[in-house]
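User: My collaborator sent over this chain with a note saying "see what the structure looks like." That's all I know about it. Can you take a look?
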Amino acid sequence: MQNFPKIGLPIIFVIGLAVIIISKSAVTIGPGEGGVLFERFGDGINTKKTYGEGFHIVAPWNSMLIFKVRQQSISDEMNVLSVNGLEVRVNGTIWYEPEYENLGKLIKTKGQDYVLELLNPAVNAAARSVVGRYTPEQLYSSKRDVIEQEILEEVVNLMKGQFLNVKRVLVEDVKLPETIKNAIEGKLKQEQQSLEYEFRLVTADKEAQKQRIEAQGKADANRILSASLKKKFFRIRELKPLLNWPNHPIAR
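Assistant: Without extra context I'll predict from the sequence alone. Here is the result:
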């Protein structure tokens, strides 16, 4: 028992040191995440390997940087100009996903804030380029799907070789100055009323045409019937002289 302190203290020290080292070296990567290793005494970010979900041991002087690798989204509001120079405010959402196998290259070349440094500028540039091709009326009404697709194509083109995949673009809202918005809504209302009026005219014309056809049909039927009766009447008159009229069955 007298020798225990001399033996026990080094053991306790070694165990404590081991616990500290393990706690510094043990890394758990959660679901939907990936890790890249930062080698303090090496070349920095290891671009050759992306660490997957689960438990990992790394050297205590290195660090594991963990990022989401599943599909994510960001929303943004941008002020852009239409084809006629009118300022338009566009609200949109972008779905993106880092290339899993190239996560280390993405972080090494673009930094940990790659969304802010890489994706946002690309989206803004694409939105300005695409929106600048359309009038406020087109932006407000009929061209939403086309604009989304064109922005997506532009962003994908800008992201080539950048280790980041853009999956989808959604234009949620297009805000115009109130005067322009009211003018467009008034124009759309007038167009709708005009279409309704044209529809009523076409419907009335078809109904009139139907009635004319029915009337013509009745007239033709009456004419045919009248002609048939006249023919029979004259036929009977032609036969009268040839018959013994008082005694013939036709005369009775």
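A starting point for your reply to your collaborator: The chain has three domains: 25-68, 72-176, 179-252.
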